[in-house]
Structures are given as structure tokens and as C-alpha cells.
């Protein structure tokens, strides 16, 4: 005979525990889930009672999981992942009436998000002529502005492409990336013996970083300027320089990640935002459906692992919408 569900074990309680384990704060958990702080505390009390185990050490700030909490967290994540996948299957995209769609997606998502996004869209568009392009944000924005593309997922620039609607997907803060073990206690001045590995200045990321350096009164010598994320990661890992990047790009370092350390950006915080731009003649809910699917994929492949590797990012790195 199967065991009855533990009394007091609820889906909301599991969501509260998962969020509290990440934020380490009742207040932050309450804000993120749209609850009151006492309600969060009560959910945690009910969960601990149901399991007959203390899951969180509330005497520390931020709160940390107990050994029992760390063990239970893995099971909770697996259970919630399965439930969310089932929910997505029940709320499938409804694009059956679509006859054509041209979509552009930023290169940052080329290995993880874009293939899954294309697969889900293809499944939902039985009679649709589908075009998919990848590229840097500034080129994708130019193509949606001239109607070469219907919808693009890209980093937001200073202004949105003309006659488009923007749906936010992700806040992606800039971070400092240095060779493994390199001290950053002296800030950027302590990195003066290493060159800055600059981004291509035609890219939105390159322009935003250069603008930030100007505001900080720092103008490193221009020796390297590249549009390849992997090349920049390789040079940092080899001790040949440092860079300013984002968690989204950092998570694509691949085999070079072991030779890299990431730190908060010193001085004034800065972030880029990833958005979905749709031409204004796209009425109805199709852009919103695609944006919601993109958020799900970004959350699973980037946001969740990003916060596990760099928990100090906190609320600065978050899926929007």
C-alpha cells in the first residue's frame, strides 16, 4: 500500500522552500512570490512539521539550509521541475492559424534556448513557413525595424526599433571576470597589469561597457577587441586579460569556466535587458506566447544555474514578466 501524502505538505510550501533556499531571506521570498512575510514563515513551519525536520537555520543571515534542508532541496527541485513541465504541456502554444513567421534570436542562446524554442514553435505551427536567424543584437534590431524579421529576441539598446512592441525577458547584470585566483580587492586599478578584453564596439554590449568605463573615469589601453565570447573566455582563463561581461555570457564559457572567477562589478551597477521585440502589426497573443516560452527556457538553462554558481547576483539577475 502506498504511503499517504504527508499532512501539511503543499505545493505552495515547496515553492516557498525552493525560493527561500535561494534568497536566504523571508522578506525577499515574500516579495518574489507575492506573499506576506508571516505567510512565508507559516508555510516553512508547516513544511518542517510535516517532515519532522528543521530545513533552515534561521539564526544566520542570510538564512542557510540545514543538512536535512540541503538533502530535501534536491528532491523539491526535481518534483517542481516535473510539475512545471507538465503544466507547460497542458498550456501548449496555439499557433495553428499562423501562416508565416520570421524569428531572430541573439547568439547567446544558440546552444541551449534557440534549438528548444525552434522545436516547440515548429510543433505548434503545422501550416507555417518558418524562418529562423541568429546574430548579434544590433543586427537583429535593424532587421525587425525594416520588417525583414517579425519578432526578435535581443539585448535592448538605447532606443527600441521603430514601430515595435517590447516584452521584457531577462535582467542580465554586468559582472567583472578575471583569471582564476586573481585578487580584485583593489578594483579595476589592481588589474592595470592586464589588458581589458573588449567587446566588439558595434555590439550593444561593447557600447554599454565602454559607456560605463567612461562614467567610472577608467579608459584601459585598447589592445583587444573581439566579438567571440569563447575567445574572450579562453584568454581570461589563460591569464591573458580580464573582461566585463554578463552572467548570460559567463555561463557560455564552457571548458574555459574552470580558469575564470566572476565578481560583482565594482562601482556603479549596470545591466542589460534581454527583450522580445515584435513588429506592431502583430496583433493578438502570439508575441506574448513566444515570450512566455522563452522565459521558461531562459529560466531553466540560464537563470537557475546562474544563481547556483553566482548566488551573490541575487535579484539583479532575474527572469522578467
Protein topology:
Blueprint: H1 11-23, H2 26-33, H3 37-51, E1 56-57, E2 64-65, H4 67-90, E3 100-106, H5 113-124, E4 129-135, H6 137-145, E5 151-155, E6 164-173, E7 175-179, E8 197-199, H7 204-215, E9 224-226, H8 229-237, E10 243-245, H9 247-250, E11 260-264, E12 271-279, H10 286-309, E13 318-319
Parallel strand pairs: 3-4, 3-5, 8-9
Antiparallel strand pairs: 1-2, 5-12, 6-12, 6-13, 7-10, 7-11
Describe the structure.
Helix 7 links the parallel strand 8 and strand 9. 40% of the residues lie in helices and 20% in strands. The two termini are 43 Å apart. Helix 1 (11-23) packs across helix 3. It is an alpha/beta fold.
How large is the count of helical segments? 10
Q: What is the topology, as strand order, of the major beta sheet?
A: 4-3-5-12-6-13
The radius of gyration over CA amounts to 22 Å
Number of DSSP-assigned strands: 13
Average pLDDT score: 87
Structural class: alpha/beta
Largest sheet: 6 strands, mixed
Question: Summary?
Answer:
With 321 residues, the protein is of the alpha/beta class.
List keywords for this structure.
alpha/beta; 10 helices; 3-stranded antiparallel sheet; 6-stranded mixed sheet; single chain; 321 residues
Amino acid at each position: 500500500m502506498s504511503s499517504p501524502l504527508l499532512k501539511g505538505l503543499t505545493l505552495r510550501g515547496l515553492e516557498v522552500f525552493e525560493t527561500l533556499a535561494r534568497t536566504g531571506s523571508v522578506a525577499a521570498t515574500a516579495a518574489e512570490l507575492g506573499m506576506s512575510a508571516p505567510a512565508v514563515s507559516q508555510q516553512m513551519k508547516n513544511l518542517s512539521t510535516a517532515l519532522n525536520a528543521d530545513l533552515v537555520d534561521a539564526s544566520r543571515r542570510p538564512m542557510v539550509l540545514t543538512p536535512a534542508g540541503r538533502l530535501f532541496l534536491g528532491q523539491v527541485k526535481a518534483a517542481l521541475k516535473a510539475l512545471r513541465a507538465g503544466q507547460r504541456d497542458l498550456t501548449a502554444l496555439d499557433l495553428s492559424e499562423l501562416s508565416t513567421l520570421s524569428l531572430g534570436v541573439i547568439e547567446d542562446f544558440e546552444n541551449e534556448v534557440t534549438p528548444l524554442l525552434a522545436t516547440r514553435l515548429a510543433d505548434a505551427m503545422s501550416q507555417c513557413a518558418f524562418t529562423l536567424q541568429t546574430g548579434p543584437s544590433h543586427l537583429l534590431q535593424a532587421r525587425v525595424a525594416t520588417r525583414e524579421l517579425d519578432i526578435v529576441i535581443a539585448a535592448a539598446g538605447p532606443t527600441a526599433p521603430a514601430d515595435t512592441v517590447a516584452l521584457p525577458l531577462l535582467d542580465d547584470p554586468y559582472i567583472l571576470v578575471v583569471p582564476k585566483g586573481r585578487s580584485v580587492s583593489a578594483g579595476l586599478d589592481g588589474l592595470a597589469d592586464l589588458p581589458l578584453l573588449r567587446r566588439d564596439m558595434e555590439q550593444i554590449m561593447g557600447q554599454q561597457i565602454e559607456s560605463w568605463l567612461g562614467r567610472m573615469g577608467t579608459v584601459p589601453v585598447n589592445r583587444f577587441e573581439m566579438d567571440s565570447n569563447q575567445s574572450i573566455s579562453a584568454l581570461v582563463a589563460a591569464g591573458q586579460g580580464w573582461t566585463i561581461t554578463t552572467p548570460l555570457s559567463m555561463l557560455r564559457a564552457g571548458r574555459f569556466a574552470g580558469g575564470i572567477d566572476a565578481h560583482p562589478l565594482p562601482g556603479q551597477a549596470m545591466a542589460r535587458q534581454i527583450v522580445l521585440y515584435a513588429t506592431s502589426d502583430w496583433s493578438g497573443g502570439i508575441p506574448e506566447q513566444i515570450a512566455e516560452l522563452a522565459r521558461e527556457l531562459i529560466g531553466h538553462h540560464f537563470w537557475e544555474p546562474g544563481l547556483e554558481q553566482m548566488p551573490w547576483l541575487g535579484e539583479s539577475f532575474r527572469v522578467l514578466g
